[in-house]
Design a protein that fits this description.
This protein is mostly beta strands and 79 residues long. Helix content is 8%, strand content 30%. The radius of gyration is 15 Å and the shape is globular. β3 and β4 form a beta hairpin. The protein has 1 helix and 4 strands, in the order ββββα.
Length: 79
């Protein structure tokens, strides 16, 4: 939805962005990366069906890559 401006579920083009924020005591739509470092998580909401997606600004991806809190997940292992 962020790139196409349309819903992948119903095709509606009435999409709203709710910006990430940090509230008191760590509340809000964010990822805490340290005591004074947070990454805002923005939500995109379809007004047609209510489907939502969460996105992080591309500039913040490097913060996640450098973080010791983030664990990289590889492909699933099948037995």
């Amino acid at each position: 939805m962020m790139y196409t401006a349309s819903c992948p579920k119903c095709g509606c083009t009435e999409i709203y962005r709710i910006n990430g924020y940090m509230g008191a005591y760590g509340s809000g739509n964010n990822i805490a990366m340290g005591p004074f470092s947070n990454i805002m998580v923005h939500r995109y909401v379809c007004a047609g069906c209510g489907f939502t997606e969460e996105w992080i600004d591309p500039a913040d991806i490097s913060k996640i890559r450098k973080s010791t809190k983030a664990l990289r997940v590889g492909p699933p292992r099948y037995r």
